[in-house]
Amino acid sequence: MAEREGKLRVQFWGTRGSIPKPGPTTARYGGNTSCVEVRSSRETLVIVDCGTGAHALGEQLMSDGGKNLRGHILISHTHWDHIQGVPFFAPLFAPGNEWDIYGPKGLGPSLRETLAGQMQHTYFPVTLDQFGATIRYHDLVEGTFQIDDIKVSTHYLNHPALTLGYRLEADGATMTYSCDHEPHSRALATGQGEFSGQDLAHAKFVEGADLLIHDAQYTAAEYPTKIGWGHSTAEYAVWLSQRAHVKSLALTHHDPLRDDDALDKIVETIRAGIKKDPQKLRVIAAAEGEIIEIEPSHAKESDSPAGEFEAMSPVEPALAERSVLLCIVDPYITKALSESIHAEGIRAHFISDISEAKKIIAEERPYLAIIEHDLPDVDGIAVSREIRQIEGGDAHQLPLVMVAPRDETPADAAAGITDWLIKPFSDSYARTKVRSWVLRTACRWIRAATPNDEAKRITSLRQLGILDTEPEEKFDRVTRLAAAVFDVPVALISLLDKDRNWFKSCFGIDIREAPRDSAFCAHVIFSREPVIVEDTFSDDRFADNPLVINEPRVRFYAGYPLILEDGSCI
Ligand SMILES: [Zn+2]
Ligand SMILES: [Zn+2]
Fold first, then answer.
1. From the CA of 124, how far away is ligand 1's center (Å)?
2. Average pLDDT over residues 338-344
3. Which ligand is nearest to the CA of 33?
4. β-strand partners of 393
């Protein structure tokens, strides 16, 4: 696609608040709920909110080919009118596509868990794990991060759900999105009064935007019966824009009770009221299908310094308190990663053998390990396995990133790799990834404890002489039968050895062993009782298990203990 002369392009796909309201009275401004497409001149695709408007956007993306699509979805909050398009967004189902989905990190379930919730069988026939695309979920707090050439800043809004506003800067232009939001001050809601406290912080967040897309569900006249509902009035959105030197304001989240003519009237009244505005604020009511190409207002690279926005505090504890473990030999990768890590103010520790890794993990508790796949003397996968087995320092839940010229193969899947950095990559890409990995939320994956009779158990298991023997029909018959009876794709007879889970019989999957750390069966061994996990995404022991987040993407597990005559659970 030709470069649009360096302009940031915004298209509205859903402008309605609360509930879709299709029909003749809303045909011009649109009946679909919140969804905005943003593209930089370099075609970086960011979708803000994924209400029902996302359906048509998804169709268009698929009609343009729909292959190898790369995109990012920023969710303001997980109220229905902002996520209901997710299960209907076709590009998420197409293999080969890659999507990053971001949303506010709450105290409760993760973003992925919340999205999975609306796709449980009770509500929807297809579950989240049936998306064919590679999808990564990111829980956000207040701060700044980079999506390719777009700088994204976040700011908490005032709404009954934890909600983030987004500020996107690229191509010398700034777009801000504050939806859903209610000013803290009641006077401000009527379009007058002073900005202070959190209202001032919000004004600073949107300061100088070329385009502000703002919640304007109500009018000042309607507001007295809507106080505390978490939405703004059109009058407040205008007053905020004037105070924050915004150039264009798009009113959105239109009330489902508001028809096109009523919206026309609101815009007309506002325009009449600001006629003499020396800043010449432009006001529109966002309309489905409308495209805005934002003229650059400042030099491309001279983005406003973050310090200007006092409301933005650094994300979580300072990155300077964190360190990264690297096992890399290639000089180009070493240089690129050192620079990326250094740029984030994070400490880097290069190691050349596993004993150094042990020392650093014990002393520093690094936040991330990056390992080169094709090391000259040893296999990167083997190094990853060894790191996973280091006792203490939470090595078993350290995010492990593999640098390789290709993606994961099924043979790699069991090694507990968290993510892959595919060569070649740009410096800015590496920097973005490092930042997102280091800021990962605490891992929801618990390794099973070792049983008290472990030594005896291993002796008894090995005395059976069954480990590493060939498959046998008498066992395969059992797994075949189990898969048929329970109507499941995979059934295994697994034997838990000292540090691996070895499969005497595998139905539906073609691997013979997997590391003990990620083994669901290790939990059965410890408890000596059946273990049933109804939904891995909502289980703190398994949600981030590599067998859940990567192939074979386990969503349900049921395991029954095999106990020998001497009482050993194997
Ligand atoms: Zn809403
Ligand atoms: Zn809401």
1. 21
2. 80
3. 1
4. none
Residue 187 Cα, ligand 1 centroid: separation in angstroms? 22
The pLDDT confidence band at residue 310, using thresholds 50, 70 and 90, is very low
b/e code 183-211 from CB counts within 10 Å (16+ = b): bbbeebbbbeeebeebbbbbbbbbbbbbb
Angle between helix axes 234-243 and 260-273 (nearest 10 degrees) is 40
Q: Does 422 have pLDDT greater than 50?
A: yes
Pairing of strands 8-14, 291-294: antiparallel
Highest mean pLDDT among 69-78, 320-329, 360-369, 392-401: 69-78
CA of 50 to the centre of ligand 1 (A): 11
Q: d(Cα 352, Cα 380) in Å, to the nearest integer?
A: 11
Question: Which band of pLDDT confidence, cut at 50, 70 and 90, is reported for residue 320?
Answer: low
Q: Please tell me the distance between residue 179's alpha carbon and the centre of ligand 1 in angstroms.
A: 7
pLDDT above 70: residue 302: no
Note the ligand closest to the C-alpha atom of 216: 1
User: b vs e for 385-396, b when ≥16 Cβ sit within 10 Å of the residue's Cβ?
Assistant: bebbebeebebb
CA of 39 to the centre of ligand 2 (A): 25
